[in-house]
């Protein structure tokens, strides 16, 4: 930082000038004076260097082309840069940038959940070693301050559950498929055009973007490192219009849901999958790019956090808040921040032991006795049936192949998988059963 007349000037090195990076530049231009006043009239911030992959690309008019470089070291190591913002994404170069910044004593602000979920243990160890903070509010739920909530506002609570919708792209796609009857690819194209999706949207649709965020939340809430390899993740690629329609008929909506729950024995349930949520539950009305996280703390009780979970301005809002906090940390050293492993005995609940009710759709050859054959296997495994449903195709009431839905009472997921394997082996079942959890939130 440089000082003049008691005013402290912070130089920012911005790695990445895409959707979010451009949003940060615009937010600082729009509200720089407001931020200065809110911070006691003595703090100014200015972007000094900007890392991009292609410096010749045409960019938003807010971006000063003379600051662009393709040399990451020129950004991180520039003496005029005091704070480093990493917004390039990925876990390779982004790691090098963050690690080098920490080594140089420069606080880091990142929105990169993949980096922190995959390599956070290494990076937070570096943060601790160099006593330099990593701020990552933008990494989870876009503009919603959920990281600060878990780390600060609810630090005095034992959190028994954090459940919610934490991927804007998939929530947008599900709503557009459901309400506008768009096909999956068209809905995804819209989410990309709106700046919600990752550069590679695979992570949005296969559930892993949300899983990375859930890992960060669970790690902060329960204090032990969680390996992505131990997390059960199902994306929205398997969601078909037929399941959305069945859900509607049965009084549910389909949501990509993160479920994090602490059990009485201390085991932490952590899973990510498209689930049936009752139409009457508050999460059912979280639509489009909006995210919501429902937290239960032993002191605060139920609390709900709602807002835009992706997109340029909401995400930049979180980055700018972190920039101010990081600048403050340079004035009054805060040292290490982020994940502190405090629960040495922490453990995840095996996915096989997690319990919910289920919706299972079978593609069957319609002949007398089919329902009984499936029901027999379920009964053998002591899995209760709460309902069955099979729509008649009015154009072909005698169709040989039909979709048959079973609604099942709550049972362990492992038990269900065993039963479904046996059912899939029956002659009358034509393809792998499609399973959705029915969540009791
Ligand atoms: P983006 O639009 O794809 O922008 C990425 C930027 O990084 C571009 O400016 C790109 O340069 C630059 N870049 C990428 N790889 C590079 C490399 N190897 N060397 C130099 N520059 C490189 O991505 P984004 O949507 O802004 O997301 C950035 C990060 O924020 C990601 O970690 C993402 O997960 C996270 N995030 C995004 C959102 C959102 O709503 N989009 C919300 C929360 C968090 P060019 O411009 O030259 O291509
Ligand atoms: N691709 C992410 C989403 C961006 O759609 O939620 C916000 O992290």
Structure description:
- This protein is an alpha/beta fold and 441 residues long.
- It folds into three domains: 2-142 and 313-331, Rossmann fold (3-Layer(aba) Sandwich), CATH 3.40.50; 146-308, 2-Layer Sandwich (Dihydrodipicolinate Reductase, domain 2); 352-438, ACT domain (Alpha-Beta Plaits), CATH 3.30.70.260.
- Helices cover 35% and strands 25% of the residues.
- It is built from 13 helices and 17 strands.
- The chain has helices at residues 19-38, 72-76, 93-103, 113-130, 146-153, 168-179, 184-193, 202-205, 208-222, 241-250, 312-331, 370-380, 413-424; strands at 2-4, 7-15, 43-51, 68-69, 83-86, 108-110, 134-135, 159-165, 232-233, 252-262, 268-278, 290-297, 301-308, 355-365, 385-389, 401-412, 434-438.
- Strands 8, 9, 10, 11, 12, 13, 14, 15, 16 and 17 form a ten-stranded mixed beta sheet that branches. Strands 1, 2, 3, 4, 5, 6 and 7 form a seven-stranded mixed beta sheet that branches.
- The longest helix is centred in the first third of the chain and has 20 residues, at 19-38.
- It is elongated, with a radius of gyration of 24 Å.
- The two termini are 47 Å apart.
- 44% of the residues are buried.
- The mean pLDDT is 94.
- Bound molecules: NADP nicotinamide-adenine-dinucleotide phosphate and L-homoserine (HSE).
Overall average residue pLDDT: 94
What count of structural domains? 3
Bound molecules: NADP nicotinamide-adenine-dinucleotide phosphate, L-homoserine
Estimated structural class:
alpha/beta
Count of helical stretches: 13
Which stretches are low in confidence, meaning pLDDT under 50 for 5 or more residues running? Answer: none
Q: Secondary-structure element order, as H and E?
A: EEHEEHEHEHEHEHHHHEHEEEEHEHEEHE
Shape: elongated
Main pleated-sheet profile: 10 strands, mixed
What do we call the CATH homologous superfamily of the largest domain? Dihydrodipicolinate Reductase, domain 2
Helix content: 25-40%
- CATH architectural designation of the largest domain: 2-Layer Sandwich
CATH topology of the largest domain: Dihydrodipicolinate Reductase, domain 2
Tell me what portion of residues adopts beta-strand conformation: 25-35%
Q: Using only CA atoms, what is the Rg?
A: 24 Å
Distance between the termini: 47 Å
CATH C-level category of the largest domain: Alpha Beta
Report the count of strand segments. Answer: 17
